[in-house]
Amino acid sequence: MPTLPRLKSHGVPMTGISLPLSALPNDGEMKSGAQRLRSWEIPSTFHCSIIGTCLTAGELRQVLIKTGQDDARTATDHALHGCGVRLAGQRDQAAKLLNKALDKRHEASIKRIPRQADEAELRQIWRASFDRGDIAGPYWALMTHPGSTQTLIREIFGEVHMLSHLVGSASRLDIARLTQLEKDLEQARQKAARQEQRLKVAADERTDQQQRIRQLEERLIQAEAIAASIVRPMASRENAAALLHPDDARTAGLSQKIAEMEEKHEALRNAADRLQALNHALLRENEALEAAIATNPREHSARPSPPGPILYVGGRRNLFDHLRTCAESRNVDLLLHDGGMEDSTTLLPALIGQAATVLFPVDHISHTAAGILKRLCREQDKPYTPLRSAGLASFLAAISGGGADGKA
Q1: Which domain covers residue 200, as residue numbers?
Q2: pLDDT at 385 over 90
């Protein structure tokens, strides 16, 4: 196929077109009997807008490949557009293929427009199509329609030309909005990952608490069994000996042994009671932890706020962020002090003055800090609650109304 002629000076992208009235033919020139116009019969001033509006880059690439231009397979969209504009002004077989592709692409729009329609009817058709966003098909159909006048073509061309500016501006705004949405999405993903990590920590602690509860229950059962097996046989033997030998010298020794066994039995009973109390505390903590995992955070936020701030003294600093998160989800105003490891104990009087109640884990606070804390609470008439441990479960049980291991 012969090399295509160079693009004329007026065949530039639409945003650079300045349309002189002399470039438009008169009404008689625009018509060719009752036949629709071909692209080479349309002034080249309009070729750029027709190719850019009425054919996609992929469709234009296929047309150029069919005309024998092998380099069209790898050409850029801009190069394809320039070649299509040049091809539209030729009167040869390649240009006929281009016209055929345009007619086929917009066949439905061409058939909807009556061939004998006058300028007023064509303008009405264009206005309706433009308002509903149907641009490409009606543009090609009206630019080639035998009834289109200079005035109508100038109006149609002008609206399409300005539309290209609006589309470019809207695209920039869409890109800005998309960038912001991507940033928001990334922040949401990071927040979800942090929440998932907190839930995993809570779930691991819940599993550890359940295992410890089972162990304590087993120890309690064993202790009760041992106490029963020791006390009952010994009491039976001592009673029988007293009946058989009421004056035996061993009576005093047996009485002493009975007293010792009763003391041991009482000690075992006290130990069993402590284990039972610890078991109940662990059960309350487990229930609070299960509620924290299963309950939607929004449900916590709907609950009424506690009567005042809570001061938490001691514990592990690496859990402070988790303590804050749990407190915020339950509308609890939480004050934190590490018990003197990094925070000065001179801050305690002011903090206790702000708090409605004070919590401290007995396994993660120094004796000195605990003594200062209790003394200040008594002086300021503030209640304090020792917690079984510095874990999240004990804290959750305390702020959820489940109680703690002891109170002032």
Answers
A1: 193-294
A2: yes
